[in-house]
Amino acid sequence: MSKTWEQLQELQPVVLKMFKNSILKERLAHAYLFEGMKGTGKREASILLAKSILCLSPDNGYIPCESCVNCKRINKGNHPDVHMIEPDGLSIKKAQIQLLQEEFSKTGVESKKKIYMIVHADRMTVNAANSLLKFLEEPHPHTIAILMTEQLQQILPTILSRCQAISFHALSPNQMIDKLLSSGVDTHLAPILAQLTNNLDEALEYSRNDWFVQAQKIVLKLYEVIKKNPLEAMVTLQDDWFYHFKEKEQINQGLDLLLLIFKDLLYIQLGKQEQIVYQGEKVRLEQFALQSSSKSLSEQMAAIFEAKRKLQANMNPQLLMEQLVLKLQEGSSFV
């Protein structure tokens, strides 16, 4: 979804100020590298910059009007002088870069400038990266490259040295909470979402998702039965958890939600009630916190982190969760 200048300025004020100065002073670099976590607005910023450069009547000389033919075509992804490359499968292939080079050897179809964007530039094959390097070393006049990555360390140093790197910073949890609340998200839900993602659009999607609402209930129920007896905890895994958390990403999210409960218990013990995220469960959590030691909570959190690591290593999810529940039960009766 395309974002306006004002919307992106709220998320990335430093980046937008740099855009403004570069455009007004006509000092645009021939190659940029946008780096930062998922959800920080890199793709939206690249599209916005393209519109700012090609807009037929920009406001104040730098803000795209959003209504001219160039702005509209860029938003629809069909401007002939703006090209976006994304991984073909798991990687960006040499053939994709060569096709781009052929396209850019021609003069601009409708404008003086040509802009290309490479999403997940860290996923270029070695051959693709070397092919792009030649392109960056001898840039065509009036050509602007925008590379994007969440893995800066995976970019070849030779490519890095030929780009102006721009860092996109994630919203702080408090900023995220404010934005979620202003979007109408429930006051009890906003702090949880702010801990799970830095992506505002993703957080808003979760807030409207029945699956996510149910996930929280199952995770809280699992925590409660863990404090009771092994049989009941295993029954809850079979009847509720495995039925609801099926995909790897869903299981990981379930583990994140579980981890937040233990973090809240630790915050309560440290007298930092204002930092707990399960605000709607505050009274119950304060009771649970009295029944746990900080040492056992730390060990239980370590067990969840280990389960997340094993999940990424493709361990059998059922075995993984059964082992985790047993480990969490070991520490659940510490006083």
TrEMBL record:
Molecular function via GO: DNA-directed DNA polymerase activity
E.C. number(s) listed in UniProt: 2.7.7.7
Keywords linked to the UniProt accession: DNA replication, DNA-directed DNA polymerase, Nucleotidyltransferase, Transferase
Catalytic activity: DNA(n) + a 2'-deoxyribonucleoside 5'-triphosphate = DNA(n+1) + diphosphate
The name this protein goes by in its record: DNA polymerase III subunit delta'
Keyword field contains Nucleotidyltransferase: yes
Domain (DNA polymerase III delta subunit C-terminal): residue spans on this chain: 247-329
